[in-house]
Amino acid sequence: MSDEAEDRTRAHVFVSGRVQGVFYRANTRDAARDRGVDGWVRNLDDGRVEAVFEGPRDAVEGMVEWCHTGRPSAVVEDVDAEYEEPEGERGFTIRR
C-alpha cells in the first residue's frame, strides 16, 4: 500500500439544523472539490444533510470542521461524524 493510500480516510457525516434550502449541498460540494476531497452529499427526509468525505486525512478533517459552519445562511445545530475505511469514492457529487 502506498503512503498516499495509507493517509486516506473516510468520514460519514450527518448535519442537522437549518441546512436544507440554503444551498448547503452546493457549498459542501464546492468546498470538498477545493480541498481535493471525494464523496457525495444529499438531503434527508428528516431535514438533515448526509455527506461522505474521502481523501487525505487532513483534508477530510477540514471538511468535517467546515460542516460546523458551512454556508453563512445555514444554521448548523449538530454535526455527527463517524470515521470509516475508505471505499474508493472518486469525484464529489450531489445526490438526489
TrEMBL record:
- Alphabetical UniProt keywords: Hydrolase
Q: Which GO terms describe its molecular function?
A: acylphosphatase activity
- Which is an annotated Pfam family here? Acylphosphatase
Residue ranges of the Acylphosphatase-like domain?
A: 10-96
Lineage, top-rank taxon, reads Archaea
Spell out the reaction equation it catalyses: an acyl phosphate + H2O = a carboxylate + phosphate + H(+)
Q: Which residues form the active site?
A: R25, N43
Looking up InterPro entries in the UniProt record yields: Acylphosphatase, Acylphosphatase-like_dom, Acylphosphatase-like_dom_sf, Acylphosphatase_CS
Enzyme Commission code = 3.6.1.7
Q: What SUPFAM superfamilies does the record tag this protein with?
A: Acylphosphatase/BLUF domain-like
Among NCBIfam families, the record links this protein to: PRK14444.1
What family is this? Answer: Belongs to the acylphosphatase family.
Recorded protein name is acylphosphatase
- Natural source organism: Halobaculum magnesiiphilum
